[in-house]
Amino acid sequence: MSRLVVVSNRCTVPRQGSAPGGLAVALNAALRQQGGVWFGWDGSVAESTRRVPQQDEVDGIHYATVPLARRDYDEYYKGYANRVLWPLFHYRIDAMQFSNAFREGYRRTNAYLARKLLQVLESGDTVWVHDYHLVPLGQELRAAGIKGRMGFFLHIPFPPYDVLRALPGHVHLLWSFAAYDLIGFQTVNDRDNFLDCVRRGTGAEVGEDGRIRWGRDSSRAAAFPISLDPADVQEMARSARDGRTVRRLEQSLHGRPLVIGIDRLDYSKGLPERFLAYEHLLDSYPETVGNVVYLQVAQPSREDVPEYNTLRLRLEALVGEINGRYAEFDWVPLRYLNKSYARPTVMKFLALARVGLVTPLRDGMNLVAKEYIAAQNPDDPGVLVLSELTGAAHELGSQLLVNPHDRDAVADAILTALRMPLDERKRRWREALDVIERNDIFHWADCFLSALDATSGR
Ligand code: F6P
Asked: How far does residue 264's CA lie from ligand 1's centre (Å)?
């Protein structure tokens, strides 16, 4: 078995003995089994990027990390990755801020990361590259003579051709996928969008089975819906039960049902639309006023990207308006928290909630949806109100699927969830949990790596 080298934009070296998150658990399991290293940006911005990658070993996993230069951080990470590809791949051409400097920064930083990665690669290594920051990395490695198997997994959606076409240089971007033997997507829909873009944008030959003939090279594209470890989520939800924070939340509800949203503060998550739908619920169903609490945790994210700051101001104004209109001296309808909590606390918050609100305008998968299901108490499970524009909706059809742009439908779904009888909640929840248990995060990693191993290589 060849060594595995995992590459992701961020590579956070955990502290000894600390509990890693979902994706890290699965990749660590694969890294332990095959041996290898996890390579990526250490999250710092440095004056000099001349040194060799920093190598660390924590709990048996090897990490190799590098800093980014200020200019690379601005043009590659903040610029091309998060102001061009992120909005475009989430179907938001209007939010895309393309510039040639960003595109050049993306190319230059991928070349820099490839040069650093070459210092830790060994011949025959299998390389697994993650996400939109690093599409051209494979091509850089191939140009340097790397022949081993290379896979790529896209964690976010892949847009249809008419959206992708708005990107100057999209044909070049499409060709850079040719370096990979296997290209993975969250859903069949994303894979089909990609194959259509390849067919129409590059003229490469695309087969029904997801095989692509780029000329001399060939690749395979397939869907591998990402997941989590449900047992780990259940354990976290249980272990946090006696924590002070969770007790305080429970007491503060005074028996009212809790509606919860946990999201990164990102414009793809549909937070303004969600707040307005909740206001519409209070407007249309007066019996809910004073009798329900909506807690929205909006974790700060990409705070130095201007579009995120604009969104934060908009949300603050909306929360002020809704609470100003409806709050009473002993009840606040919308509790808005612009901060992050430890993962076990979040899992217990999810477990306490009668309704989980996951209503992005577009999302590759959305693991909070799966976490909500996994965290529920089997004897009294809640109901998920889930946007049909998420990858998770392809698997969690037993929950209440909504169009996040349809304020009436979201308000009605919250009410239906609040009123749903226990038997029905249990039946729908069991169905959703079965799906998650069948395709957990370990199964996801196994499927991708076995499929990569089955490719003919270069
Ligand atoms: O979902 C895509 C993603 O890039 C994740 O990989 C990451 O955890 C999250 O968004 C946060 O993004 P960033 O690394 O820009 O803080």
From this structure: 9
Nearest CA to ligand 1 atom 3: 155
How far does residue 358's CA lie from ligand 1's centre (Å)? 17
User: Is 447 within the bounds of a domain?
Assistant: no
The per-residue pLDDT for range 91-101, each reduced to its tens digit, is: 999 999 999 99
Pocket test for ligand 1, best of 7, 131, 135, 266 (most atoms within 8 A of CB): 131
Q: Is 90 in the pocket of ligand 1 (CB under 6 A)?
A: no
Residues 167 and 214 in one domain: yes
Cα of 14 from ligand 1 centre, angstroms: 17
| Domain membership of residue 271 as a residue range | 230-437
| Nearest CA residue ID for atom 4, ligand 1 | 131
Residues 207 and 293 placed together within one structural domain of the fold: no
List, by residue number, the catalytic residues.
Answer: 155, 363
Question: In this structure, are 192 and 266 located in the same domain?
Answer: no
* 445 inside domain: no
Cα–Cα dist 338/326, whole Å:
21
| Bridge pairing between strands 54-58 and 4-10 | unpaired
Q: Which of 432, 438, 442 is nearest to 373 (CA)?
A: 432
Q: Give the per-residue pLDDT at 50.
A: 78
Give me 453's structure tokens: 């191993």
d(CA 4, ligand 1 centre) in Å = 22
Task: Yes or no: say if 372 and 356 are a contact pair by the CB < 8 Å rule.
Answer: yes
Angle subtended by helix axes 22-34 and 441-453, to nearest 10: 40
**Under a CB-based contact definition with an 8 Å cutoff, are residues 216 and 186 in contact?**
no
Ligand 1 contact via 32 beta carbon (within 6 Å): no
Q: How confident is the model at residue 387 (pLDDT cuts 50, 70, 90)?
A: very high
Task: Give me the number of domains the chain comprises.
Answer: 2
User: Do 186 and 314 lie in a common domain?
Assistant: no
